[in-house]
Write a structure and sequence with these properties.
about 25% strand; alpha/beta; eight-stranded mixed beta sheet; 2 domains; about 30% helix; 13 strands; Glucose Oxidase, domain 1
Length: about 230
């Protein structure tokens, strides 16, 4: 049975025009109870700094690299099939389970090109990545660090909830990510975000306009802050 979504691929694409901090700002208005959850909370490294944000459905997995696989692990082909089976563009969310995440890199020239062909826009991971110059130019990675080796990297499991730097994500969650980090966008918020982003922008504009005004003063700031709160 096919999944019924509250949004379309076009709705997701619309959100790529705003950076992830802006998305977080707007979510604070729509779902204030999530103000302190749902986003990464550690510094991250971008494969393509300054690139357009990526927005897609989460494809989740866990990896290890420090030691060879022990016991049953996921078959790599099964993982690829899982990533490819999506009604919309995806963002891969990989949790590295090693005691030192990033010991070995899952992402590099081969996997960025392969996952791009499978329909993924990029990845968010606490693990590492490599092959900076050779990786796919249209595949973004927001990762924990850069490293030289893949060591014993292997997929442990997939399609289950993961936690990447404090961001808990599950299969089919909407993920918005850029060089700042990543955030989970609740499904019912996707279509509401553009309007709320406009409201946030208007509230910020009156403050920024004052900052650019040579007549700036604390008294003027007091008035502008009051006016900003009244913008609905």
């Amino acid at each position: 049975m096919s999944t019924i979504y509250l949004f379309t691929s076009d709705d997701l694409h619309v959100l790529t025009q705003w950076d992830t901090p802006t998305i977080c700002n707007a979510l604070e208005l729509i779902v204030p109870e999530r103000r302190a959850i749902g986003f990464t909370v550690e510094p991250m490294v971008s494969l393509h700094p300054g690139a357009t944000p990526i927005v897609g459905l989460a494809r989740t997995g866990t990896v290890r690299a420090k030691e060879p696989p022990r016991g049953n692990v996921a078959e790599r082909m099964a993982w690829y099939e899982y990533v490819a089976e999506a009604a919309m563009p995806t963002v891969v969310i990989i949790q590295d389970l090693d005691d030192r995440p990033g010991y070995g890199a899952f992402w590099g020239e081969v996997n960025t090109n392969l996952h791009h062909k499978l329909g993924a826009l990029g990845c968010v991971t606490n693990g590492s990545f490599r092959d900076l110059a050779a990786s796919n130019k249209d595949f973004q990675i927001i990762g924990g660090r850069v490293g030289p080796s893949h060591a014993h990297i292997h997929v442990v499991d997939f399609a289950k909830p993961v936690n990447v730097f404090g961001m808990q994500a599950a299969h089919d969650d909407v993920i918005h990510a850029d060089e700042h980090g990543a955030v989970v966008v609740p499904a019912h918020c996707v279509k509401l975000l553009p309007e709320k982003i406009g409201l946030v922008a208007m509230r910020e504009k009156v403050i920024l306009d004052l900052c650019a005004n040579p007549a700036f003063s604390v008294e003027a700031l007091r008035k502008v802050l009051a006016a900003s709160r009244d913008i609905h």
